[in-house]
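Annex B.
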Amino acid sequence: MNLAVRDTALREIMDDPHCDPERLDATLRRFGAVNRLVSGWGHVYRRRLRPHLAALGRPARVLDLGSGGGDVVARLAALAHRDGLRVEWLGADPDPRALAAAERLATANVRFRCADSATLLAEGETFDAVVSNHVLHHLTHDELQRFTAESLALSTGPVLHGDIARDRVAYGLYAVGITPLAPGTFLRTDGLRSIRRSYRADELQRALDGHGGPGDGDRAGWHVENHPPFRLLAHATGHA
Ligand SMILES: C[S@@+](CC[C@H](N)C(=O)[O-])C[C@H]1O[C@@H](n2cnc3c(N)ncnc32)[C@H](O)[C@@H]1O
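Methyltransferase domain-containing protein: predicted structure tokens.
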């Protein structure tokens, strides 16, 4: 498998609006287990989100953009609740199939909406922080510029986009490790395609530099960190 360059021609099955709805639902529901194993949000929460939310000294609002099956925002909500932080969480995703899977995780302080970043922005919504998981590598070049610019315009505080790093070892380990969770889902095919579509840290930094928003240039101030073994975190401060 040649992972030297991003394979941007590959599309994931779940991005096809006509894919098998039962397998898609099973995939979205099983993301919880996969994300818990690979996505590293416990670390990002402790290092970047918790300190900001705690310092506010008031109830906060946090947005998960592209929330999919909803497990990442539900997990962040559980971590914050355990720490005694008062936070209203919103998971937003324009795909109604994702919303249907996520709604089972809704609680009094975790809500889900069928909406994309542009819609929330047009409504004048703002949040104390914006996060996303595994969204960036799905997007085309232009979609990436819009999505990241909109995420900055929606946040008065940190903007944290977590994603997979393209890596040969990650590819091999995922191919083997996903086997018990994969039956009846797109997890195997889409996970491997995701890794092939994903960025390396320097590529994502270049893609984000100079594209903070219309005329914003590199003042958007994105920093892309490698979180070993196989994670990237793009972070910046919002300007809502
Ligand atoms: C692979 S899924 C990731 C789901 C979830 N975050 C996870 O980690 O399992 C990417 C999601 O991003 C959503 N998305 C794409 N563009 C978006 C935008 N502009 N605003 C909000 N969500 C978007 C898609 O609908 C899709 O459900």
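The first helix runs from residue 21 to 38. The chain is about 40% helix and 15% strand. Further annotation is deferred to the next reporting cycle.
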